[in-house]
Amino acid sequence: MTPVYVIVGVLVVLLLIVILIYNSLIRSRNRVDNAWSQIDVQLKRRYDLIPNLVETVKGYAAHERQTLEAVTSARAQAIDAQQSGTVGQQAQAENALTGALKSLFAVSEAYPDLKANQNFLQLQEELTSTEDRIAYARQFYNDSVLSYNNSIQVFPKNILAGMFNFEKREFFEGEAEAQGPVKVEF
Question: pTM higher than 0.90, yes or no?
Fold first, then answer.
């Protein structure tokens, strides 16, 4: 009778270990999903600010049409990537949008009246604040992805992760040129 209790006890302990590992994998995956939704919220805020910014600049710099169209096009591509792309595709589209916005702000330097416009200054401040939030959300997301990817790749969690189809997640990375300062050339 004692060997039966030992076997049942070992099986219960193994079952509890499997449950604990599975639950930790689920929590980790949910943390990544939550971090991604935080990026999503900030990106939507950014997308909403851009049309107002473009309209404000149009009034002062109408002949800078190419720059304004580049910002509008980059915004549309970023929204498309957000709705249907992978993390990598969205990161690429966001980097293009960041570059277009840097060009827009570089153009604004040539228009003192625009730089002094209260609406433009407010929009610029809101966009800067949103960019900071995006950077923080991206860092949080990447930290969550790192933790998740590590957890599904280390033993013994990798065994359960493979059995339950937990897949490695992509980092949301910026390109080097999108992260540097704006170059203004005359």
Answer: no
